[in-house]
Amino acid sequence: MDPLSEVLSLLKPHSYITAGFDAGGAWALTLDDLAGRIKCYAVIKGTCWLAMQGVDAPVRLQPGDCFVLPSGRPVSIGSDLGVEPRRASEVLDPNRSGEVVTYNGGGDVFLVGSRFEVNGRHAEVLLRTMPPLMQVETSGDRARLRWSIELMMEELREARPGSSLVAQQLAHMMLVQALRLYLSERSHNDVGWFAALADPQLSAALGAIHADPAFPWTLQELAARAGMSRSIFAERFRARVGETPIAYLTRWRMMLAGEKLIHGRDTLARIAGSLGYESEHAFNTAFKRVMGISPRRYARAGAEEAFGGSKEDATSSSENESEMAVPPRAAAKAAKG
Predict the structure, then answer these.
(1) Cys bridge to 24: 108, 118, 174, 328, which one at CB 3.0-4.6 A?
(2) Pairing of β 13-23 and β 109-118
(3) What span, in angstroms and rounded, lies between the C-alpha atoms of 295 and 280?
């Protein structure tokens, strides 16, 4: 799979609720249900303001705009920035999937979309590095997004045989299409794995890593895939992704290993070999450095306990330039010696 598909497969997003929102008059809501979730909505009618922690200025949403909220940060949305917001959980029914929720009389602003539950074991790490707000304004593709959303709503309203499955697939189509359009603009200054996908050269290197994570990649080989010199590639990758290329490679390997530990039946030695490590000891050392817990404890404790104490360890796992040139097989031999 391509990098975006692979990351989404680890996040495991599934549509939790799909609904319309019809608001009128002066109104404002604080969206307090975003933790561990991704929201993707489109403005069908009217305009409104969206303010978010970490975004410099409020954003005015116009008819046809689609926006994705993946980071879990506090968000306020309303007709006017001066209106005191109410908590959405207090005034809206969270179980009205497939329906239109009318607020404050309705008639002025209409939004439709989905809220996705994210069950991936590494959701916190992956979502934290995505842009907090992704707004799509490309007019040529808004009709396609709207078609997906409206058809999804129709399926849920009519409740025909298979509607639940069809609506789930349409919700994923809407989310992926919005992410694609955001990436296609290539004019953002975001930092993280998602930002690198918008850079054709860095995306080529990421694609190589995801296509063969067990390969003993070196900085020079990844730079060649990107069509850049070693030094320029290393500098540009770190600036865009927030870590070195080999640190990213190691982190991705450990995320794949985490999935295998929890969902598979392979032994540690087999998992280590599938990711390019000839020594189980070398694999265990890398896993604990990145994930903050040993593979065996990770498999037993589950993702919540594993990430609870690993944030600092994971952040400090970026290797220096000399380490970047050492492939895992070489590291394994060094460990044996």
Answers:
(1) 108
(2) antiparallel
(3) 10
pTM of the entire predicted model: 0.75
Angle (CA) 257 2 15, round 5°:
80
What CA–CA distances, in Å, run from 228 to 220, 223, 236, 288? 9, 5, 10, 32
Please write the tens of the pLDDT for every residue from 177-207.
Answer: 888 888 877 667 788 888 888 888 999 999 9
CA pair distance 173, 153, nearest whole angstrom: 13
Q: What are the structure tokens assigned to 303, written together?
A: 């993702």
CA 146, chain centre distance (Å): 22
What is the pLDDT, as a whole number, of residue 130? 84
Largest CA distance in the chain: 74
What amino acid is encoded at 254 in this protein?
Answer: M
pLDDT at position 252, please? 93
Residues 6+ apart with CB under 8 A from 107: 22, 24
What's the CA gap between 261 and 284, in Å, rounded?
12
C-alpha to C-alpha distance for 278 and 223, rounded to whole angstroms: 25
Query: What is the C-alpha separation between 2 and 205, in angstroms, rounded?
Result: 11
CA-nearest of 95, 99, 98, 103 to 77 is 103
Q: How many Å apart are CA 264 and CA 174, to the nearest integer? A: 30
Using the structure block, give the residue that is written with the tokens 């009217």: 46
Q: 317 and 205 in contact (C-beta within 8 Å)?
A: no
Strand order in the sheet with 13-23: 100-103, 13-23, 109-118, 37-45, 66-69, 134-136
- Amino acid identity, position 152: M
Reported residue count of the chain is: 337
Q: Which residue type occupies 180?
A: R
* Beta bridge mates, 129: none
Among residues 202, 184, 192, the alpha carbon closest in space to that of 128 is found at 192
Q: Are 240 and 296 in contact (CB under 8 A)?
A: no
- Which residues lie closer than 8 Å to 46 by C-beta, 6 or more apart? 63, 108, 109, 110
Beta bridge partners of 38: 116
